[in-house]
Amino acid sequence: xxxxxxxxxxxxxxxxxxxxxxxxxxxxxxxxxxxxxxxxxxxxxxxxxxxxxxxxxxxxxxxxxxxxxxxxxxxxxxxxxxxxxxxxxxxxxxxxxxxxxxxxxxxxxxxxxxxxxxxxxxxxxxxxxxxxxxxxxxxxxxxxxxxxxxxxxxxxxxxxxxxxxxxxxxxxxxxxxxxxxxxxxxxxxxxxxxxxxxxxxxxxxxxxxxxxxxxxxxxxxxxxxxxxxxxxxxxxxxxxxxxxxxxxxxxxxxxxxxxxxxxxxxxxxx
Length: 270
Prior knowledge:
Layout: E1 3-16, E2 20-24, E3 36-43, E4 49-52, E5 58-64, E6 67-80, H1 118-125, H2 132-145, E7 147-148, H3 159-165, E8 167-168, H4 170-183, E9 188-194, E10 209-217, E11 220-224, E12 236-241, E13 250-252, E14 257-267
Parallel strand pairs: 7-8
Antiparallel strand pairs: 1-6, 1-14, 2-5, 2-13, 3-6, 4-5, 9-10, 9-12, 10-11
Helix pairs in contact: 1-4, 2-4, 3-4
């Protein structure tokens, strides 16, 4: 399959009153990328250490020094020149037949609340034909129900919260769709990564990280995107988990001030 080249990366600027340990999840998952060149840079020079979390996601540990510091990550990756797979005949799997590893993705988590939203999920989608198309109908509902707006939700906003306010960002769209799927006993997991504007209209906003979901149907995971509600090219996965709390771009063990953050995700000439 023909591939296209994408530049991804980010830069964080912090100011800390004391040395502050931190974890960053910004590096593409190794299993997702065939060809990659990457680099880390920091000012002042910092010691970085990598590890893999329990979900298999790459993580980087660092101690932010007292004062101002900057951490940059950059990579060039090759992505398929094709949108993600789809199969409208893919069936839902009865709970007793689900693979053991998928069961955790049917349960409530920090931001995804199938127990709270269960009645609404069954009222809206319970009578729909089971399978791929029902998941797509969930995405279509979430896409039309919520309005994308930066700053409309907080780090504490759950799927139930944004379902009420009808405002959110991509992670909120994803949390709500995941919650509806799980309420119907369909395993759904949160995916975090880079999403360049390839063969679509350019976003009016600056480049940013993206969130979407993967749903277990038949014998595999399938990609769905309630925020954009269309199949896309160029997804670069950073990590997967139950919700955004498992794949946080930055976790700090203290209170450093975030001075700036920029994200890059764009196609480059080969």
